[in-house]
Write a structure and sequence with these properties.
The complex is a heterodimer.
Chain A lengths: L7 H25 L6 H14 L14 H27 L6 H6 L8 H19 L3 H23 L7 H20 L6 H17 L3 H20 L5 H12 L2 H19 L2 H20 L13 H22 L4 H19 L8 H25 L9 H37 L3 E2 H8 L5 E5 L7 H6 L3 E2 L7 H12 L4 H19 L3 E7 L3 H7 L2 H7 L4 E2 L5 E2 L18 E5 L1
Parallel strand pairs in A: 1-6, 2-3, 2-4
Antiparallel strand pairs in A: 4-7, 5-7
Chain B lengths: L2 H36 L6 H14 L15 H5 L1 H16 L1 H6 L1 H4 L4 H28 L1 H19 L8 H20 L6 H15 L3 H19 L1 H14 L2 H9 L3 H6 L1 H27 L2 H20 L2 H19 L6 H6 L2 H20 L4 H20 L8 H25 L1 H27 L1 H4 L7 H9 L5 E5 L6 H7 L3 E2 L8 H10 L1 H25 L3 E5 H10 L9 E7 L2 E6 L1
Parallel strand pairs in B: 1-2, 1-3
Antiparallel strand pairs in B: 3-5, 4-5
The chains are: A mainly alpha, B mainly alpha.
Chain lengths: 577, 591
């Protein structure tokens, strides 16, 4: 049915052509953002730097992230900081005329989706193994590869390049993992190092974001069901055991176990206080997020923009069901499982953020592209006697991916324009930009406290202008969650103690004379501080006084990512010496 | 798959692709309609004035007497249609609880602007659908399919207008396409029914009467179509066509009856024979030409022209006609010089002008290249060239005047796609299907892009209906107050008056004092001629202010303040205080 391709080198060139324009657009868009960091990436960069300075995790600085994620990010920060420092030094040495050097290096922070590079290298290494096999799956994978990788780039384009979070890391790992898992399912042999590497990444992604288990689990359940369906034998314990043996007595499982062991050992090597805080505080707070009714928890249907993603995903599911009627190929269905896993994560995480839907978006794109491409190939094959132009299906596919990427880029720019318009209206109505306040009232190296539910949104500016974070608490969402728990009386004694300690630490941080500026989010964080009587203390400080209830916008002329603009959530009250 | 199956597939595919194109066109128009529902008060200078004129006429007012304008009256009377439609809509809204509940925003507004915009959009939609129908009915599905890029480009350009949306040029371009298609079909010798001809010609003829320049451009189109018939090969083909209908013996006997030797030896007789043959050709050509022009659409056009002239001279209210012919028209040429601009500015006054002029010239160039291969491209090029000449001759940097040129450039591009499609179709059906898929992809892309833009319009707030002056007018006046706009242009003051549901404070929806003053400055004779009129206008303003006491007066400081001084109009002495100043505009409120 599908035409055989001559050799894999040609395929690879074709793959590069498919993703060339999306990559260019991605780079241009990341570069267009003047602060270079996305909010989540910036919080991790901050945490990574503090970690590299030797501060104890969770006790000297606190955020709701897994220790493995922070550790791996700190490694990236250590690596990339050297480049950034070199670029900055070189730039200073030649009189600052090469400011584009910073421009080049800084975005690399926003890419722990440097993991993307790993995935790409992994795919490139896996290519010969995939292509040398003559099985139906190998043919299916080979023909779907451009669509598969193209869908990945389209997904991150549509998510506004928020590449710094665990979800994008998970997506990049899945990109590598899925073909390898499917090849193993078909019992096709391939290089063990690649399998071990992939298994290692899977383990790492689970340690970074435990809800990733859902995605991997769903994929395994689907494969088990598929095996049962194919053999027409009911799923028995013997069959399950056989499936497990086939799946897990493998090189990738060894890689998975080794990495998990390494992670476990690393967790064990953490200071006792960090370990204790992780198990007793961080994990329970993260679980609280799933059920909290706090205003900061926006819920899965918080934004109508998410609705179209869900609708498209459901349509793609229908396409997969329709495709299964004609073909035994289960690649689209397994991609659908990834999307479904992503959807479950989105609902569980309960934040209503577009980043949580990355897997679902990828899944929809991949299904449409793969099924569309195959449909076109089939169409051309069936009407071959009408003399179609040579390689038309490829040309058409490249055009489709390019036009889609231009369209997504257009939509993203529309969002940016909207953001800029909103920002302009706010400024006209008396709001100030956070950037102006930072530049006018603080110097390089000064400490600044940003107390907001999403302080990460303000952190990119601190990083860009070399200001330090004054508070030990980096992620204030946990304070909001603890506050709700405290009001409802559902907090455990340990969490109650921790909340009291957090508030005391916050008070100490704000009393530090090195803190030159304090910005408090008025709608969510200010009431919490008032209830905890921290605010009264702040206003009594001799060096910090509330100037006036100024409306400060954290964005600078609308170049931040759209989803970070939550309107009311970023009205700050300014306290300054 | 067997050949017969493939062909069946091909037919099904063709039908499918036609449906895709139709859906794309529909979504293009639907997206724009959605945009107008998002901004039910979005209008611009001239459009607002016409709407006001239409409303005034419906209320029993007279054009030129009750409202001043430079233009012929047709557009004012046509503007009654959206006003009437708005009234019907409002009646429906007031009688339906469900609609009021569903669209609370719309039910509280005056719907004139919305209905004007939607009706303009409907004109474009009608034009595109009728052109499609004509191609399908008289040339077949393949021809329509090959022409679809052109129709899609038409829709894309028509919907993509913002400042020019609903201007006379825009309406003209929107409604003339079926007539152009019809004439092309006539050239191809198709027998078109009178109903179809009238459906295409009637709206087009109406828009051709908006301005004499439009008629000129259309005549250029017709001339090129006619000249095509003079070309030797076409004459030969026509002779062949004619010869098929006449007895062969008669035709053969005419050229071959004279011996060649005699012709060579006698120069006089040679001249005579050449003359004879030329006359013979003419004798063949004239009936053909007459047949080409003796068609319902041409009759319709002539009837409309004559009817319009007859209506204007015999039925149009005499006072208004006298005012237009004796007061406004003599002033037109000298006074309009006020808004003339340097030649260079006509090319690049701003980025929008530069873009439109560039597209027009690119279309002209492309049309010239294609004119050897396609008569339709040549005729469109002539249309474009004359429209471009009109723009430069008019010497005013108004974007809407470029709409016919730019639109024709898009049609020329569509013709280029058509020619490419024809050349591809000669090779293989597979190639044609491949091309169609690519066309569909691009159509879907542009459709999605414009749809996304329309949906995001409110979020972007890029075309907010009220500008800075409009916002202040709204802030300083109450509902149904009278507002006097003393500025040199219609915008920014007048559209705001209409949008906010206010009433203009005088016969002059915008002030023409600056234009009259300009006419006076040209020569002493002009001064002597126009000064009484200038004084009369000032006196009218004074009486308006003293008698009607408008709630708000918006004054464009330069040059209106100087004129008011000449007329001894002191707003503060008349009971007004300066409430606000924005840029060059002062806002005077009744104390």
């Amino acid at each position: 049915m599908l035409r055989k391709l001559e050799d894999w080198r040609k395929d690879f060139r074709y793959l590069l052509i498919v993703i060339a324009l999306p990559i260019v657009l991605l780079i241009v868009n990341v570069s267009c953002s003047s602060s270079y960091f996305s909010s989540y990436a910036s919080m991790r960069v901050l945490a990574g730097r503090l970690f590299n300075e030797g501060l104890a995790l969770y006790s000297d600085f606190f955020l709701l992230e897994s220790p493995i994620g922070i550790c791996s990010f700190s490694f990236l920060v250590k690596l990339l900081d050297a480049f950034a420092l070199a670029a900055s030094t070189l730039n200073t040495a030649i009189g600052g005329s090469l400011s584009w050097l910073n421009f080049l290096f800084l975005p690399s922070f926003a890419i722990p989706t440097t993991a993307v590079v790993f995935a790409m290298v992994g795919l490139a290494l896996a290519m010969p193994a995939i292509l040398s096999s003559g099985s139906a799956l190998a043919t299916s994978l080979r023909s779907a590869l451009p669509a598969y990788v193209g869908a990945y780039f389209l997904a991150i384009l549509s998510c506004g390049f928020d590449l710094g979070d665990s979800q994008s890391f998970l997506l990049a790992v899945l990109l590598l993992w899925l073909p390898i898992r499917l090849l193993r399912y078909e019992e096709i042999r391939f290089a063990k190092p690649i399998a071990m590497l992939a298994g290692g990444f899977v383990s790492l992604s689970i340690f970074c974001d435990p809800t990733a288990v859902l995605v991997y689990g769903l994929l395994e359940v689907f494969l088990l069901a598929d095996a049962a369906w194919k053999s027409k034998v009911p799923v028995t314990s013997v069959r399950v055991l056989r499936f497990l043996r086939q799946s897990f007595l493998t090189a990738e499982f060894v890689g998975f176990l080794l990495t998990a062991l390494g992670c476990w050992l690393y967790l064990g090597s953490l200071p006792a206080v960090s370990k204790e805080l992780y198990w007793d505080v961080v994990l329970p707070i993260q679980i609280m997020q799933f059920q909290s009714g706090h205003p900061a928890i926006y819920g899965p249907q918080s934004c109508p923009d998410r609705l179209d993603v869900i609708v498209w995903f459901l349509i793609s599911a229908l396409v997969v069901i329709w495709q299964r009627r004609f073909s035994t190929d289960y690649l689209p269905a397994s991609i659908l499982m990834i999307g479904m896993g992503g959807m479950m994560q989105y609902i569980l995480q309960n934040e209503g953020l577009s980043r949580s839907l990355q897997l679902t978006i990828f899944s929809s794109f991949a299904i449409f592209l793969i099924c569309g491409y195959r449909g076109l190939c089939l169409f051309i094959e069936r009407t071959r006697d009408l003399n179609w132009p040579l390689h038309f299906e490829k040309v058409f596919f490249v055009l489709l991916v390019w036009l889609l990427s231009v369209y997504l880029n257009f939509c993203l720019n529309l969002d940016r324009q909207a953001l800029r318009a909103q920002y302009q209206r706010d400024i006209e109505h008396g709001a100030q930009s956070l950037e102006n306040i930072l530049l006018s009232r603080t110097k390089v190296g000064d400490k600044v406290a940003v107390i907001a539910d999403f302080p990460g949104a303000a952190y990119p500016l601190l990083l860009c202008h070399d200001r330090k974070v004054a508070t030990r608490l980096l992620s204030f969402r946990c304070l909001s969650l603890l506050q709700v728990g405290s009001e409802q009386g559902t907090l455990s004694p340990r969490l109650r103690d921790f909340r009291a300690k957090l508030l005391l630490d916050l008070k100490d941080d704000l009393e530090d004379p090195a803190c030159r500026l304090c910005l408090v989010n008025e709608s969510i964080s200010l009431p919490i501080l008032e209830k905890a009587q921290i605010l009264n203390n702040v206003s009594q400080f001799t060096y910090l006084s509330k100037e006036k209830a100024e409306r400060v916008r954290f964005v600078s002329a609308g170049n931040r990512q759209p989803h970070e603009y939550f309107g009311h959530n970023f009205d700050f009250a300014v306290y300054a010496p | 798959m067997s050949h017969s199956n493939s062909y069946e597939f091909w037919f099904r595919f063709r039908r499918f692709s036609l449906w895709v194109f139709v859906c794309c066109l529909f979504f293009l128009f639907f997206g724009q309609a959605l945009f107008f529902f998002t901004y039910p008060l979005l209008t611009y200078a001239d459009q607002a004035l016409y709407l006001y004129c239409g409303r005034l006429i419906l209320e029993g007012g007279l054009p030129y007497i009750d409202v001043f304008d430079w233009n012929p009256p047709l557009v004012m009377y046509l503007a009654m249609i959206p006003v009437l439609a708005a009234k019907v809509l409002q009646a429906i809204f007031s009688n339906s609880e469900l609609l009021r509940y569903s669209f609370p925003f719309l039910s509280s507004l005056s719907l004139e602007i919305l209905s004007f915009n939607l009706l303009t959009l409907a004109c474009g939609c009608y034009s595109a659908l009728l052109s499609m129908f004509l191609f399908y009915r008289y040339k077949g599905a393949v021809s329509l399919w090959l022409r679809m890029p052109m129709l899609f480009l038409f829709g894309f350009y028509f919907c993509g207008q913002n400042y020019s949306f609903g201007e006379r040029e825009h309406l003209h371009f929107g409604l003339i396409l079926p007539l152009l298609v019809l004439r092309l079909l006539r050239l191809h010798g198709k027998n078109i029914s009178s109903q179809h001809s009238l459906a295409a010609a009637l709206p087009a003829s109406l828009t051709l009467l908006f301005k004499p320049q439009f008629l000129l451009a259309y005549c250029a189109f017709e001339v090129i179509l006619s000249l095509q018939e003079f070309r030797p090969q076409s004459l030969q083909s026509q002779q062949a066509e004619v010869s098929e209908s006449q007895p062969k013996a008669q035709l053969k006997s005419q050229p071959e009856s004279q011996p060649k030797a005699q012709l060579k030896s006698q120069p006089e007789s040679q001249f005579k024979s050449q003359l004879k043959s030329l006359l013979g050709k003419l004798a063949l050509f004239v009936p053909l030409r007459l047949r080409f022009y003796r068609q319902p659409e041409i009759y319709c056009l002539l009837v409309m022209v004559l009817g319009y002239l007859g209506w204007f001279f015999f039925l149009f209210p005499a006072d208004a006609r006298t005012c237009y012919l004796q007061e406004i028209l003599p002033m037109y040429d000298s006074a309009y010089g006020f808004s003339r601009r340097a030649f260079l500015l006509l090319f690049r006054a701003d980025s929008l002008i530069l873009q439109s002029v560039s597209i027009s010239f690119a279309g002209l160039f492309l049309g010239l290249v294609l004119s050897r291969r396609s008569v339709f491209a040549a005729a469109l090029t002539a249309f474009l060239a004359v429209s471009l000449v009109n723009y430069f001759y008019g010497n005013q940097v108004w974007l809407y005047r470029l709409v016919p040129c730019e639109g024709a450039a898009f049609l020329v591009l569509g013709e280029a796609f058509y020619l490419y499609g024809v050349s591809v179709s000669r090779r293989s059906r597979g190639r044609l299907m491949a091309l169609s898929l690519v066309y569909m992809l691009f159509a879907a892309f542009f459709c999605a892009q414009s749809f996304a833009y329309a949906v995001n319009a409110r979020k972007l707030d890029c075309s907010a209906p009220l500008d800075e002056v409009g916002g202040r007018v709204l802030g300083l006046s109450g509902r149904k107050d009278t507002v006097l706009w003393l500025g040199t242009g219609i915008s920014p003051g007048f559209p705001a008056i209409l949008q906010c549901g206010l009433r203009p404070g005088s016969r002059y929806a915008y002030s023409v004092l600056a234009q009259v003053n300009h006419a006076m400055s040209i020569s002493p004779a002009n001064r002597a001629h126009f000064e009484p009129l200038f004084r009369k206008m000032l006196a009218q303003y004074k009486s308006y202010i003293l008698e009607k006491k408008p709630r708000l007066i918006v004054l464009q400081t330069n040059p209106m303040q100087a004129f008011l001084k000449q007329g001894e109009i002191d707003l503060t002495a008349f009971g007004y205080r300066e409430a606000e100043v924005y840029g060059e505009y002062s806002f005077f409120v009744l104390k």
